[in-house]
Amino acid sequence: MRLVNGVLADNLNLRDRAIQFGDGVFRTLKVRAGQLEFWPQQYAKLVQDCARIGITAPSEATLLADIAQLAPFDHSLKIIITRGESARGYALPADIKPNRIVQLAALPAYAERLYLAGAKLVLCATRASWQPALAGIKHLNRLENVLARQEWSDPAVFDGVMLDRDGWVVEGVMSNLFALIDGVWCTPILNESGVSGVYRSILLNDIACDEIPIVECKISLAQLYAAEAVFMCNSLAACVPVQQMGEQSWPLLSGEIAARLGQRATSSLLFIGNQSA
Amino acid sequence: MRLVNGVLADNLNLRDRAIQFGDGVFRTLKVRAGQLEFWPQQYAKLVQDCARIGITAPSEATLLADIAQLAPFDHSLKIIITRGESARGYALPADIKPNRIVQLAALPAYAERLYLAGAKLVLCATRASWQPALAGIKHLNRLENVLARQEWSDPAVFDGVMLDRDGWVVEGVMSNLFALIDGVWCTPILNESGVSGVYRSILLNDIACDEIPIVECKISLAQLYAAEAVFMCNSLAACVPVQQMGEQSWPLLSGEIAARLGQRATSSLLFIGNQSA
Fold it and tell me: Which segments does the entry list as coiled coil (chains A, B) (predicted)?
């Protein structure tokens, strides 16, 4: 089920700059029992990412009407905002209008043992690019993630860790990384590489407190290996404790962060779809 | 006029990974009087770029049949090869099949004075990303070019020069750069950033000789400013002598390189379309 500008569609116009240049941004949200997780944060990040590259984001009401039309229940929901359509070339026509795509997919089936026994990671040879103009943005230029994802085929592997040019830890191919170092949860600074996910921001902005300090910092591979615990997070899988990467293994994450995040998630849910039934 | 897999079309399936991730490569060719310029080199580069990211390129015969169907005369011709369609996520289904898009556009109208008086450039604040896994490839992740192109609106500006993280000169937003330094034509090494264009390769591989030495090397901004002459090149504009960038100006390029390239171009032309008429 896919909508383009609110209309059921299977296709996008070939003049769309998403096709020509990857000129747009996206969001992936989890819908459980008809509830959109972290909608306020997801919409705020969409607006912020659009602004970073000069696209006017659709209104919240417009997107919620699209979503209501699709009536997701237990789904992964992807929103793509493209800059719109233009003739050949990088230059923008003055009157360009963004296109919005809203599409449903099945939720990935993460087994309970992933959360109980912990995830297995690989260390990717593909590095995360250096590009401060795009760092942090969930934009449509994701070829490096595609290449990194081809580095493993073992379905037991949850994600791959990507380093930057200088060997600093950046993120997973499809998730953000947190490491407990000297009693402080650390997550890589993403001002030169990587994607800043909504889950990561919620942890930093809403969960961090005196008892659970969480900071952004540079993390070397040696520091990651020496960390007391590691977890990955994204909007579909939530917090996933990490058990091993290659020869390295970590003790499993205590339940505290996960529990706090769960509370926060519950209070952030926005009812959509059949809420009036 | 656009073809998708050889069939006239206005749209691309929303499941195509070009839309989702910019997962593909492209070529832009010049067609003059029904003649495709540098076709053998363009096709070879397409195959090479596809191989770099693990896409099987269409056969030369398939693409030439598409092109013949469109019967370009004086046109810009763009070929896009996408990895194909898939469900959500970076992972690739085993049976994925590439999609090919062939589209015509008007040739850009470069005024004769551009070649006689020389081009005006700007120095872009947007840097070229560091990403050795993708450097040199003309792939569909072109958001940094889109951002850099928004740095000027003066139609008298031909292109903008992009530097890398460390300040080395990489390329133009839509062209490659050559600078005459100590009597040798130098063009930036593109193994960490940038797009290696077909015109650039022809200059390096076919035009370079004892009388016209051309080498790849690192070029600092100071070296560029101090260069004896500068030109930009791409497949639509060919060789464009540069007259100025900001406060800096250069003497115009002698005609020798342009003349040699012109000879080479003539011998590389492949007749298509009405060649049997």
Answer: none
